[in-house]
Amino acid sequence: MFQYSEQNILDIFKNQDENDFQRLLDTANHYRIKNLGNTVYLRGLIEYSNYCDRNCFYCGIRNDNKKIQRYRLSSEEIIAIAMEAYKQGYHSLAIQGGEFEDQREVDYMAGVVSKIKDLSGASSYGSMGITLSIGELSYQQYLKLWEAGAHRYLLRIESSDEALFKKIHPPSQSYHKRLDCLEALKDIGFQVGTGVMIGLPGQNYEHLVQDLRFFMERDIDMLGMGPYIAHPATPLFKRKKKSNDIDPYTSSIKMMALARLLMPDINMVASTAIQSLHSDGLKLALRAGANIVMPVLTPEACRSDYNLYTNKEYKSLEKLSGEIISSGLQLNYWKWGDSLHYYRRKGLSYPVNI
Ligand code: SF4
């Protein structure tokens, strides 16, 4: 791994020295600027539905949580949000929702994607780039969404360690199925993103080193990861804190910085979770090499019902923009901001005009 051995990386996670931490962030920031420039790209996040057929032990919108109000935006509502965002300079969206088994839901989403592509494609800046994050589907279902016009997909592994994965998911959810999905997405041609939660009960630094190795071996194009934040309506919430639990915040920032050093040309998100955990979360995530921000565009009336975790922070585009500029970076409107790594691994030239 890079110039670091796995032992070096473990030492970085365990090291409490503040000066060394600041040096790590400076190096990661330098790497991002050298490889990707000082640009940060936008993904307008639409959390279109909180219905979910699954029961992940950490997630607030799991099927067994009967205390939340379920919602699903109509296709007209999603398209209206998308086109309003387009007018404001968003050229990429991330559409996210719970997981489902019903083919009609795939058809519905394919219709939404296709319509947004058509409407935005007729405008002067060209069509909206679309990332989907709607969970595990079949090869044919992913293909349908690709053919509708989505070209990026985020499917987090949550932990690359199979034993830990099993501890945070019910037996009906398979680690190997998730690996197969990641392969299917890559085979179809998507820019593929994955990620993990940091600070999970039972997780240690060795797991995080394994996660970094997993991202590299899988040759991923995008990374979306952040701290584990417990939600009271979940089975994991009941698990008592232990003295050797890892610190989710600092470890997340270190994880991002290390990911930037090891994978200099991938896209990496400054997650909402990291911004929710600490007021300096965005600034540190940017210094650690994040080059994507995802302002939430979900209608305000639905936001409190899309609680994957508690105390979620919502920042306006203006506030995000101010923090990005004060970090010495530039927020780029009207660009897809695709993953450079994707084009390199496919042997294609990077499109400068989208
Ligand atoms: S993490 Fe995703 S698949 Fe799991 S319960 Fe939450 S929304 Fe459903």
Helicity range? 40-55%
Please give the number of β-strands.
12
Supply the CATH superfamily name: Aldolase class I
CATH architectural name: Alpha-Beta Barrel
Strand-and-helix sequence, N→C?
HHEEHEHEHEHHEEHEEHEHHEHHEH
Q: In one word, what is the shape?
A: globular
Number of domains: 1
CATH C-level label: Alpha Beta
CATH topology-level fold name? TIM Barrel
How big a fraction of the residues is strand?
5-15%
Bound molecules: iron/sulfur cluster
Structural class label: alpha/beta
Strand order of the largest sheet: 2-3-4-5-6-8-10
Stretches where pLDDT is under 50 for at least 5 consecutive residues are none
Number of helices: 14
Backbone CA Rg: 19 Å
Mean pLDDT: 94
Q: Characterize the largest beta sheet: strand count, sense, and whether it forms a barrel.
A: 7 strands, parallel
The end-to-end distance, rounded to whole angstroms, is: 32 Å
